[in-house]
Structures are given as structure tokens and as C-alpha cells.
């Protein structure tokens, strides 16, 4: 299923803590889960994260009878699939993709003695022993963004380039030369690494596009040179429907292309301008007198114009490809600056030629680390960096965000969802929120979360239920 666009449909939980049931229905675009404090919004998000990231070991933190998550491909929502998990104290019974699996709780055992419950070592421990967990994870393009931290910034692969780069940055942060390393925000270090990695990757892509352009130029010139003999050239010129206006546009586009590629100086620009000016005058006469009195040299000039037109076409295609490659960076900067640029400080998020993200203000043009952004700005940059750079190109993603409004200014809340959906209309958003401002005009997308209490005998079990 890797590469398909999966949408969550609903989540059913039976006898959570032996006390209550849940049934949550997800919209395929955006769902706002709301409800009173203590209704279980964060618990629902955490359980959803555990399932979709394949980290089923986290479900041992809860007691329940059965959990079922239903999902489908966006191209065929009628073909419903599901993951079903049954809790048996020491193990989980899982049904997934037509297969049944058993999953044992190794936490605290001889093989697994780690103090960090969410450490990468624990994840790798389970993933190395249960291949189906990786299969579950690979079914979804999922990123979970709980408040003030990011639990998933990259695939769980210690050998990946991105992971190695992140570890390098972490080691640098411990170096004495890394100013105030002890106070640096871990989430911001992850974002710095994420942006730096993607900036480098985009630059590499642009370099390859430029190399391809140079090769295409060479092939194009060879093709034009062998295309015509004298008679064919004259016939081709007669058939062409050139106008003075199109020739002027060709001149302007060609000189612009050469300037952008830094392939022309002032003298050469004047020479090209004179060449086109002279040719256009000859062309005006040609329009009046047709072939009468024209030398073959005029038609060979037309071949040069044909070469130039081909080069312009190649350059336009190259720029389109470069523009597509640069788009994530441009969208990230524009989106962030739409939020932070309207404050009193006039902040502006920037990325330098080395891929380092920073900001300036109207009072200070020197680069300032994003470590010094406000808590709300840090939450924004965490969310949008993941949304833009961490969703695989051409596919959808599932983003779950826990109470984003807690660190967002009221004016930001009003545009947050709109900006998010404008970036990627294919993603599925699940918000846990108390804020009517962040919901805005999307009230039809609200889902009220309520505990469905199970009748139990009055006693310790019931008291335990109501203590949760």
C-alpha cells in the first residue's frame, strides 16, 4: 500500500479502562474534535498515533477490550480496510490486511531495560522483531504534532541520511563552541535540521536541472544544424507565421535568459540587440516583397532565430522545473511570514544560502536563531515545516494536532486552517481543540467527543472509572 493515499474513516474503542466506549468519525479533509476537559481528546490522538505509526507497544499504556481503526484509499472510499486490536494484558491480538498477529509486551523484560519510554531504541526493538509493524507504518503517511513537541519528524531508520544529519547536529549542540547549547530547544533543533536537509536536497535538484538544460542545449543545436538544407530552409521560412511582435518578444526573452544565466555582458547585449533590430527591418521588407531580391543570408539568419526560439523553450521548461523544486521553500517562507510579519517587531523568517533558517526584525537585520522565537511562533514553524517538508511529494498525509490554539494568537487562529488547507488540499487534518476561532467557517467539520459510559456495579471498578 506504500504510495497510496489513505484516509482515516473512524475509530472505535471498546471498554477503555473497562469504563467507557468511544466511536469517532473522521472527515476525509478536516475534523475538529471538541469536548469538555477530561473527555479524552488527547487520549484519542495518542491512540491514533500509536496505531498509524506502527508503535503498538504504546497501547500497553491503556487497558481496553478492542480497538478498531477503519480506513480507505482516497481513490476508492468504498473499499474499507481496518486494523483491529484486542487487548489481553500481556499481549495484543492484531488483525491487519487479512492477516492475524500476536504482539507481546516486552517493556520491563530482560531484553528491554530502558528508562526512556518513547526512545528510538524501544521503537527499533519492536520494529526489528515484528515486521508487520513496519507494514502498518508504511500504509500511512502520518505525522503527529502534539503540543510543544514533534514525535515524528522522519522515518524510524537510524541509517537514513536525515537521521545521521540530525545526530550530527545533536553532537554539535553539546560542543562548547555551540553558544548556549544547554538551553536550546530540541524541537527547534529538529526543525533546523529538517529545513537544512530539504534546502540542500532542493539545491541538488536544481543543479541537476541546470545540467540537464546544458545537455538539452547541445542536443538542440545539433538538431537544428542538421534539420535544413537551403531549399528546405527557404520553404520553412515561408511557412512560418512570424510577426514583428513575436520577433521582438523572442529578442526580449532571449536576452533575459542570457542575463539570468550570467552568460552575457553589456557589449554582447548590445550586439544581440543590433542583430535583432537589423533582422526585424529585413523581415519588414520580406513581408512586403516576399522572396524578390533576398539573399540566402537572410534565410540563414532565420535559422539562428529558430535556434534561439528552441533555446528559449528549453529555458522556460528549465525555469518551470526549478520553480516546482523551489516551491516548498517559497511556500514555507511566505506562510510563516504571513503569520509573524504583522507584529510590532516586523519579524521575517529567512533561509540563507547554506540552508540555515533564521529571522530578522525591523529593528535588527542581523540573523537571529529561531531558538529565540516566541512559543507560538515555534509551534507555527514546527507545524508548517513538517506539513511542507515532511509530506511525501504527490501524496496525501494525515496530520493530528493537539490543541494548536494554546500557543496561537487569536488572529493566527482565524487563518490557521485556511493556510494549512491551501498548502495541501489532499491532506487529512484532525484537530483536538477548544477554540471556536480556529474552527471558523468549518463548523460542519466538528465532532463532539463524549464518553459512552458502561454500566458497572457500584464499587472499586466504578470509582476507578470516574477517577479517570
TrEMBL record:
User: Which UniProt key words apply to this protein?
Assistant: ATP-binding, Nucleotide-binding
Q: Which InterPro entries match?
A: ATPase_AAA_core (IPR003959), Bact_Antivir_Def_Nuclease (IPR051396), P-loop_NTPase (IPR027417)
- Stretches assigned to the ATPase AAA-type core domain: 30-439
Report whether ATP-binding shows up as a keyword of the record: yes
Pfam families for the chain: AAA_21
Question: From the Swiss-Prot or TrEMBL record, what is one GO molecular function term?
Answer: ATP hydrolysis activity
Q: Does the keyword Kinase apply?
A: no
Q: What PANTHER family does the annotation carry? A: ATP/GTP PHOSPHATASE (PTHR43581), EXCINUCLEASE ATPASE SUBUNIT (PTHR43581:SF2)
Put simply, this protein is called Putative ATP-binding protein involved in virulence
Which species?
A: Anaerospora hongkongensis
